[in-house]
Amino acid sequence: MNQDLQYVGHTFPIHDAPQKVRGDLKYLSDMKLPNMLYAKLLLSPIAHGLIKRMDTSKAEALSGVIGVFTHLNTSGKTYSRYRIVPDQELCFEDERLLTDKVRFVGDRVAAVVATSKETAKEAISLILVEYEELPVLSTPEQALQDQNTKIHPEGNLLHEYVLKLGEQVPLPKDCVVVETSTSTQKVHHAAMETHVCLADFDSSGKLTLWAACQGVFGVRTIVADLLELSYNKVRVIKVPMGGSFGGKQETILEPITAFLAKAVRQPVKLALTREETMIATMTRPATTSKIKTTVTKQGILAEFRVDTVLDAGAYATSSIDSTYAMSKKICKLYRIPYYEHSGKTVYTNTPVAGGARGWGAPEIMTALEIHMDAVAKRLGMDLVEFRLKNLVHPYDLDKASQISLGNACVIECLEKGTATFGWSERYNREPDQGRFRRGVGLACAAHKNGMYGGFSEHSTMTMKMNEDGSFTLNTGLHELGCGTITSITQIAAEVLEIDLDKITVMEADTEYGPYDFGSYGSRVTYICGACAYEVAKRLKERLLEWAAHSLQKPKETLVGKNGRVWVVGNEQQSISYRDIATTAKIKGNIDLVVTHTYHGTSNPGAYAVHFAEVEVDTETGRVKVVDYLAAHDIGKAINPGMVEGQIQGGVQMGIGYALYEEIRVGGDGSILNSSLKNYHVLNAPDMPTVKTLLIEQGGDDGPYGAKSIGEIAFVPVAAAVVNAVNNALGTSLSIMPLTPEKIMATLKSRYEARGTRHE
Amino acid sequence: MQIEFKVNGKEHTMHIQSTMRLVDLLREELGLTGTKEGCGAGECGSCTVLMNGKAVNSCLVLAPQINGQEIITIEALEQDGQLDKLQESFIHNSAVQCGYCTPGMLMSAKALLMRNPNPTEEEIKTSIAGNLCRCTGYNKIVTAIKEAAES
Question: Which of A96, A482, A742, B75 would you label with A722, given CA atoms 20 to 30 Å apart?
Answer without folding.
Answer: A482
